[in-house]
Design goal:
Elements lengths: L1 E5 L3 H10 L6 E6 L3 H10 L4 E3 L2 H4 L6 E4 L6 H10 L3 E5 L6 H14 L3 E4 L6 H11 L5 E9 L19 H17 L5 E6 L11 E7 L5 E7 L7 E8 L2 E6 L2 E4 L16 H15 L7 H17 L7 H5 L1
Parallel strand pairs: 1-2, 1-4, 2-3, 4-5, 5-6, 7-10
Antiparallel strand pairs: 7-11, 8-9, 9-10, 11-12, 12-13
Helix pairs in contact: 1-8, 4-5, 5-9, 7-9
Length: 323
């Protein structure tokens, strides 16, 4: 299977590491934003063809594209990729607004191509272990409590380089948890609210945010997000269930007393990104809908759109606004 990688940043490196552990995959080209960074990236990973023009890359002999590009480009690039006849795996979020998300889903339906979103939490062995037990009714989720903490007071990426775009707590980082909450409960998110702290004077984005959600069964999700946290970074999930408490830290899982949970039998790899990329490739080769298809993930974008609208509602009015 011939794949084009779009994006010369930190997440692109994670995809390359994953793809190199998957048989019968050929990374045929790289496309990026900055010419010097793209060329250096291509040289480092011995990618023969590179360009800063996605449209030019789409004329090459390839089956699919992995989009690890800036968030504002995701929807338009995914649509262009499918219009060119190629399957697409796009980093989250699939778009930074609901209208573009809906358009992306429409184009997937029109073309019939495989279009999947990198909702990696669905594939981390830690969350898979929980999902399997919820599906078998061995666990029932009562409350999912999540912390998503970064220290990003300057507009720089995970590698410390200046960004050409501005990241967003709601449309990007909450997307992981919003999708995961619906996926783990198997229910639509029917109510929610969001509050945000002061806007950054230069970046123009909220640096702190609190989100609450629930599903018809009564399960709750509480999500705290910050770009102001100067300490351990990342996202940490506490599953409070009827039959135990579990803490998921990316691919690792411990119980409520910090005892490790054996995940060796969950999947062929303990790397969630590799498992996600394997699912995309398998879905393309088998001609089936992948887990985390754009259609399956549209509900998360609808929820985020709803949450964004509650930001304009004074806290004292939340009760009546959501009833």
């Amino acid at each position: 299977m011939k794949i084009i990688l779009a994006g010369e940043g930190a997440i692109g490196r994670r995809h390359i590491a994953a793809l190199r552990r998957i048989d019968d995959v050929d990374l045929v080209a790289l496309t990026g934003g900055r010419a010097d960074d793209t060329e250096a990236f291509a040289d480092e990973f011995e990618i023969d063809h590179w360009t800063t023009d996605l449209s030019q890359a789409l004329t090459l002999d390839a089956d699919a594209v992995i989009l690890a590009t800036p968030t504002p480009l995701h929807a338009a690039q995914a649509i262009e990729t499918m219009r060119s006849g190629k399957h697409v795996l796009v980093e989250i979020p699939m778009a930074d607004n609901l209208a573009d998300s809906e358009q992306l889903v429409r184009v997937q339906h029109e073309t019939g191509l495989t279009a999947m979103v990198c909702h990696t939490r669905r594939f981390n062995p830690s969350h898979q272990w929980i999902h399997e037990r919820i599906t078998r009714r061995e666990l029932k989720l009562q409350h999912l409590v999540v912390e998503t903490f970064f220290f990003r007071r300057e507009n720089r990426n995970a590698m410390g380089k200046p960004r050409t775009w501005t990241d967003h707590l709601l449309w990007h980082h909450s997307c992981h948890t919003v999708d995961l909450f619906g996926y783990q409960t198997g229910e639509p998110i029917t109510a929610g609210w969001a509050q945000q702290g002061p806007l950054h004077p230069e970046l123009g984005i909220a640096m702190d945010m609190t989100i609450g959600m629930n599903v018809p069964s009564g399960a709750l999700c509480t999500l705290s997000l910050s770009f102001n946290n100067n300490g351990p970074l990342g996202t940490f999930f506490r599953y409070i269930c009827d039959n135990g408490t579990y803490l998921a830290r990316y691919d690792d899982l411990v119980d409520g007393y910090d005892n490790p949970v054996d995940l060796s039998g969950v999947e062929v790899s303990n790397d969630g990104i590799e498992l996600q990329d394997r699912e995309f490739i398998s879905a393309v080769l088998e001609g089936r809908e992948p887990n985390a298809s754009v259609s399956q993930c549209l509900g998360a974008m609808q929820t985020i759109d709803m949450l964004e609208r509650t930001l304009a509602v004074p806290a004292a009015e939340y009760g009546c606004a959501l009833n």
